[in-house]
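Handout, section B. The chain below has 284 residues.
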Amino acid sequence: MFTRFLFVVLCLVVAPALAAEPASLGVEVIELATVYDVLREKGFDLPTKSGLIVLHVTPNSPAAKAKISPDDIILKVQRTTVRTIDDLRTALEGTAGKEIDLSGYGSTIIRGKQRWRRGDLRVTPATREEILKGAMVQTADPIKGLTFWKHASAPEFLNSRTAVYCYIAEEQGAPTLRLKLQYVADDWLFIKSLVVRAGAENFTIDLSGFSDVERDNSGGKIWEWHDRPVGANEMAMLRAMATGGNAIIAFNGNQYRKDFELDDTSRHVISETLELYDMINTAE
């Protein structure tokens, strides 16, 4: 309930602090002590002044399998109190593949109000690479000899929703990163360009070529989409979207422009796909 507030107001992202660790839960967290006073001023009735608030849970991660959710508060790992990200990092050392105990507060909404309940659970941490690969849906094209890795939270179909994201295409063990953009609405926009404002930068992708954007429609709904390899401009744009706080996406059409704000789910789709792509390339 308040994780979106934390992201917008404070722009504190701590997933990279845990990314390099050999054992991970698959969560993005923030230290409660650093935001406790702000949250109290905003009317949030917190059950404790310390611990780690969960902001994001990676799909299919150890945390997701253990039913950990955003707004939950982690207090202890194996009976060791964790107040800081460094505490969590230390407590998780050497635990990949081993079942461990976690203690904290689970968050729920009761009659429109956020409530927490103290509890314990068991979870099996994994390596960061295992978590990132587990967050991807893998499909294969045996005719072209390609394997695709797409984040589980990315749109399932071209007409699912408007989105800008990236995915990994692998051919004979060589990974490449691709950019996918799709616009879903009730009426045609006839997209000519994409402009993204991320952080303090603007990025433009020209789509004015005759065959740049594909289109289809059904049941009163239309969708336009484009798929391309990621070059230097696209890579800079994606990294800014993943780390630059709020981002605005503008689809420019023949006559009109449609703007969308990058939501937290889409940001994590991009950031976790980029992280896996970087990890694969580094390993090579």
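Note. The longest strand covers residues 174-185. Compare this with the example in section A.
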